[in-house]
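YtkA-like protein
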Amino acid sequence: MKQFFIGSLLLLILILSGCSSSPNINIEVSEPFFMQKDKATLFKVAISENNNALTDLKVTADFSMKNMDHGQYQTTLQEEKDGIYSGNIELPMAGDWEIFITAEKGSKVTEEVLEYEVKEPEGAALINGDWITEKDLEFYLFINKLHIAISRSQDEQTYKGNALNEAMAYWDAQEKMNEDRNQLLTQIIRLRSMAYLSIEKGHEATKEEVSSELEKVKEQYNQFDIAKKMIQEYGDQRFWEKQEKQYELIVLSQKVQQDLIEKVKKENPDVNEQEIYYLAQKQYEELLVSQVNSLKIEFF
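Tokens:
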């Protein structure tokens, strides 16, 4: 019996020495991840020792709910870059989860349990950590409908016969396109991207500038009965509160446009105004693509 006990103790010591967590090794979730129904999401951890990234590890993650029995969910993590390991995991629900991380290199095995609150996404997309919410999409949907309705009313007063039918068919197509969620997301991402760039360049949108732009657009909407009716149905206060936030972004993006116009004028002193605006717009679109590519954007 004594011999059996000693043998078991030695075996336990061997197991513990092979599966230990060095106090100098740090494992942490490197970026937020979310539960998406019937869809896998990307899980990432950063692994380091004495603040130095650990590379070439074999890493697995086992998920189990902290206070409920929903079984275990495992994923193998692949190294993305130095010390960052990622893998897809599909979880059944949001809540508090325990994540058992195993990292191996040769005969050395490190294990650590992380506690993490997995949340549901707060919107349709994340852009540099800022959510694009369902309310954002709803507002863009309404704004597009509003502008289409205004254009319809103008065309109804301008055209007759076949020309009017063609115009109405065009706006019917625009309304259908407006229902495309990806189109709405693209609009939001374009504007926010250039607003971020404007801030990076040191610009700001003052209250006076935003108020001035809002007054201009109010005057434009007040010219059309359909616009006044739709805004009233949407809710005047709600609409203009949303528009104020929107025009902060618009003012910021306009400052990037103005920078480009000044740059083009300086580089092309003999070019006419129309050509200047054309060249500036072309550079704006190129800058937009570059800016969007530089941002971290996730869709849900």
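Helices lie at 2-18, 134-158, 161-178, 181-200, 207-221, 225-234, 236-267, 273-294.
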